[in-house]
Amino acid sequence: LSTVHKLRKSLVSRRTGVINQVHGFLLEFGVIFPTGYAALERVPALMEEHNLPLLLQQAISRMLDDIRQLTSEIKALDTEIKQQVNGSDAGKRLQSIPGIGPLIASALVADVGDASIYKSSRDFSASLGLVPRQYSTGGQTTLLGISKRGDKYLRTLLMQGAQTLLYRIDKRNDALGVWARNLLARKPLNKVACALANKMARIVWALLTKGGTYNGHATA
Prior knowledge:
By secondary structure, the chain is mainly α. It has helices spanning 2-27, 43-49, 54-86, 89-94, 102-112, 121-127, 152-167, 175-184, 189-210, and strands spanning 132-137, 140-146. The chain has two domains: 2-86; 89-210, no CATH class. 63% of the residues lie in helices and 6% in strands. Strand 1 (132-137) and strand 2 form a beta hairpin. The longest helix is centred in the first third of the chain and has 33 residues, at 54-86. It is elongated and about 60 Å long.
């Protein structure tokens, strides 16, 4: 399962590289279009509109075909991952945590394994690089930014899950929603996303070591 995730990561990286090349080649001819996969559908019309050289249009068309093929392979892996994680007890329980879907749950099940090897939820979060670095001198402890050490892939997925959750945090009335809104009133969005990813990691550890599912109203 971990190999499947590594393959998916490789395909996503390759697709991103080809998309960036398309942007770069067209920019040399003064053609600018929005970022994102959906905007690629406009590229053929833009090339016709700007009357670009035929050889360039053919090259770009081949690159667009590569992007579609990579996207198809990524979607196939996503389906495979979703089917696998839905057949896993731990995977189902992890998906009860806000911000964690099949992809993140599957990656956690594949890479974490036995979460009890970590003595505490903070130790697990630290293994993902989501806890602040500390600088101590003269009896004073200063907390710096997150360490960004450990498993970069899981940290990135949890950060993406936290950011997605924050976009609709106003609709949540559970303890996590209240906590996040109070923090947003005092801190920048990116810092709140890091803090939320840290909290999600600690909840993951609790569910993997103690069982059960997430209940946001239990501690509200």
